[in-house]
């Protein structure tokens, strides 16, 4: 699909975010069978599930795509159903309800808790550390692609190309610690129950309603100073992250495999804010001074295995500035990427 100069509205945005890559279509074709997406109602889940449906259609398959969530928004559930995604309301912490979920040979695990973790740590640990064990017990005969986060690495020096999959984890704060516990649960059940698992460590997906670029563009447009202490970040178009996650269906293994999902650049906060200010035709001011380290991931293994990103940083910034200038919708959930203490 040719990349547009501007994204018209939310419907156009969701169309772009759910466009499957050739690698995703090939993986769906090779995998065969139904795909169940657990925690489908989050920031990425709706467009990932829709992409899975489009990939199946492109591959000539009629298998089911099933999205599971509590669905606090009935409208979101109706939208998924209209796109050919079957939906099931379920509290995933209710083990009896999980036991009634349909079988599926392929599971995409997207459930988790980040924002609001500080102040309700027990629920964060229940979602991030206990729930994976519940899901592995229910889907021990399936292949599982499980979302995790680059936060498990901790901070790494700028200019060193970012943390790699083989680097030892060094999580900062309870959120990141609970995410490492999530990974360990999937590893344990992969080892002991023989469940093929691929763990995806995502480092900042971007779309027009959410992401580091959105945070920066909104601050710039409001003429708020931009703190550059956390001076660098990675970001990847959410549609590319979705496509890589589906491509990872063929990478699930025993023992579990790990793949970083991250953009190719170490993006400077100062440089990105300056460019967004230029695109927004305004000025920008800064506060703080860049630290020597930041939360950075090396995505080269992921690009080799799951496909290269299709949307460039320059395109994402142009889209973000245009969307911000026109007052487009946003989720109202800042990434808090600047947090160096791991509190979210």
Highlighted features:
seven-stranded parallel β-sheet; 15% strand; 40% helix; alpha/beta; 15 strands; 344 residues; globular; two-stranded antiparallel ribbon; Rossmann fold
Question: Your description of this structure?
Answer:
The two termini are 36 Å apart. Helix content is 40%, strand content 15%. The chain has 12 helices and 15 strands. It is α/β, with parallel strands linked by helices. The longest helix has 21 residues, at 173-193. The model has no long low-confidence stretch (mean pLDDT 95). Strands 3-2-1-4-5-7-12 form a 7-stranded parallel β-sheet, sandwiched between helices. Helix 8 crosses helix 10 and helix 10 (269-280) crosses helix 12 (313-325). Helix 6 links the parallel strand 4 and strand 5.
């Amino acid at each position: 699909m040719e990349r547009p100069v501007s994204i018209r509205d939310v419907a156009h945005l969701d169309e772009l975010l759910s466009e499957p890559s050739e690698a995703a279509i090939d993986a769906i074709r090779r995998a065969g069978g139904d795909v169940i997406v657990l925690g489908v109602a989050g920031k990425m889940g709706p467009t990932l599930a829709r992409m899975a449906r489009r990939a199946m259609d492109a591959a000539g398959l009629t298998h089911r795509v099933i999205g599971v969530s509590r669905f606090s928004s009935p409208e979101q559930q109706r939208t998924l159903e209209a796109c050919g995604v079957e939906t099931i309301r379920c509290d995933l912490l209710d083990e009896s309800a999980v036991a009634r979920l349909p079988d599926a040979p392929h599971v995409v695990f997207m459930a988790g808790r980040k924002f609001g973790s500080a102040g309700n740590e027990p629920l964060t640990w229940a979602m991030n550390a206990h729930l994976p064990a519940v899901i592995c017990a229910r889907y021990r005969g399936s292949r599982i692609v499980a979302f995790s986060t680059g936060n498990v690495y901790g901070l790494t020096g700028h200019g060193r190309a970012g943390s790699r999959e083989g680097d030892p984890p060094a999580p900062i704060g309870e959120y990141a610690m609970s995410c490492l516990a999530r990974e360990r649960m999937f590893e344990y059940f992969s080892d002991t129950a023989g469940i093929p698992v691929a763990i995806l460590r995502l480092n900042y997906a971007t779309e027009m309603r959410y992401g580091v670029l959105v945070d920066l563009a909104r601050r710039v447009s409001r003429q708020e100073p931009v703190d550059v202490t956390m001076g660098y970040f990675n970001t990847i178009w959410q549609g590319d992250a979705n496509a890589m996650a589906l491509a990872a269906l063929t990478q699930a293994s025993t023992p579990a495999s790990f793949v970083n999902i991250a953009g190719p650049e170490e993006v400077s906060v100062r440089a990105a804010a300056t460019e967004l200010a230029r695109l927004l035709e305004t000025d920008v001011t800064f506060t703080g001074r860049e630290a020597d380290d930041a939360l950075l991931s090396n995505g080269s293994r992921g690009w080799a295995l799951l496909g290269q990103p299709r949307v460039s940083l320059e395109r994402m910034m142009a889209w973000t500035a245009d969307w911000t200038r026109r007052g487009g919708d946003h989720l109202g959930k800042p990434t808090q990427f600047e947090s160096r203490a791991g509190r979210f």
